[in-house]
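Reviewers asked in the last cycle whether our approach scales beyond single polypeptides. To address this, we selected a multi-component target totalling 584 residues and predicted its structure end to end. The input consisted of the following lines:
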Amino acid sequence: MSQEEFETVIGLEVHVQLNTKTKIFCNCSTDYSNKPANTHVCEVCMGLPGVLPVLNQNVLQYAMKACMALECDITKETKFDRKHYFYPDLPKAYQISQFDKPIGERGRIRIELEDGSERLIGVTRIHMEEDAGKSLHAENGETLVDYNRACVPLLEIVSEPDMRTPEEARAYLEKLKLIMRYIGVSDCDMENGSLRCDVNVSVRPVGTEKFGTKVEIKNMNSFRSVVRALEYEKKRQVRQIKRDQRILQQTMLWDDVKGETRVMRTKENADDYRYFPEPDLPPVHITQDMIQEVSQLLPELPDKKVDRIIKTYQIPAYNARLMAEDRELSDYFEEAVRSHNNPVSISNWILSELLRELNKDLLPIRDCKIKASHLGKLVYLIDSGVISGKIAKDVFEEMYKEGSEPESIVKSRGLTQISDDSQIQEIILAVLTNNSQSVHDMQAGKMKAFGFLVGQIMKETRGKANPGKVNEILKSLLREKYQIECP
Amino acid sequence: MSIEVETVRRLFELSKLSVAEEEIASFQGDLEAMLDYAKSLEEVNTDGVEPTFFITPQANVFREDVVSPSLPSEKVLQEAPTKIHRYFRLPKVIENI
Ligand SMILES: [Zn+2]
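The resulting structure, written as structure tokens, was:
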């Protein structure tokens, strides 16, 4: 059997760090990045004896938003549990997490694939928990611990083993990140650790139902490395099977430099976290009123937005998706369309010219000098024949630099398109007189000279002549005066 | 109620405690006695009784998301046996991975 005769079965466990101001159970600030070690800790997050954790109400609210956005059932009677394990970055020797009553269950995420097809990936559960501190492993073998990150709120989002290719896993992560950003609960940046992802992966012959033995992979630091790790692991597992070797249930670490996975530990006996209910945190009863209140805070979600934009504006799905990747960008598009109803052209201007400039300057759309309504106006000036598409690019450039209004740029720089027939005719006649050689060439059947003449006319008018009219009038003059028939 | 020697070893392992081989039998006896004591609860009829996870009737206790100052780091590190540059300093905790 070849590699193609196997399919991968992939499930993802994603940890998303919530961007609340304070930690999940104490008033310490969560703004720990680049801060000196152990300056954002208190008795509660250090787990000193006799302290009482109290749930941050925004953590609950953000978790509920996430559940709604991923279409989970919200657990009405939810609670916290202690998960026990020993590790120096876990000050209490247990992590406050959720076990049998996670805040959300049975959700789903719609993913779009390269070929334009869509799939639904199940979300098994979402639960709230606290982050651990950070251990640094020094060269001399010592471990240094910083507890600034301990107790920072996390959502763990576990998918069903529904993905079948590394690309689907990537699409899932991209969509999850997009949704979390839309609802404003996390920036989901894998590089700075606000999104972490472990994968479970097994292989099986295509067409079979039974799952193979799964391997867990940790330590990927970008979406790209998730894809690479999955591709590598698929090959490794298929090779093992073809050699009649058993796949061991293992935890592997991804080495991004070497581009390979290696064994971290073999799971001989299943982990035993000895979960029990956290007695210091009273349960949470989620009422209909609370759900009502939180649902009003939800923005229009990416899938709905894309569907609505495609339907309302009749633009290509590709354009709609690309713009919806940034909530503010798609708002900008809609505002521009309100000032001039040509959605296709406006979306093209946004995705080509505007994004190119913004990406070059690393600017978000909100810092763009061109007002949405001005971009609409620019497209209006093209559509109504006032300026040519070519001139519009120059006008756009000035709008981008100065933030000025397109009509005033066109006026002050005298860029109005020449569409007046008699004026164009006059210019063409002059060009024909000055380029008699080209006319002779055409009479001799060298039709290439036509393009040259058009170029001369545009040069003469500094690009302002209406190109359609130039073509039309030039052809008719050549026919009338020189009996030259142009195709 | 009997408890296997292996289970006793596993409990020590999970608790990160070391135990001398000759002590295991005595711990085994102690643990069995505890289980037998707790077993008396099985005599109570709990049909139709909801499990009790919390012993107070409280629910929905929240705090506002407002920052207050953390502890000064001298205090945080006060009881650390060894420290270096504001870090807790520990012996090596992981094998070469
Ligand atoms: Zn704290």
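Residues 232 and 260 of chain A are 7 Å apart (CA to CA). We regard this as preliminary and will revisit it once experimental data from Aim 1 are available.
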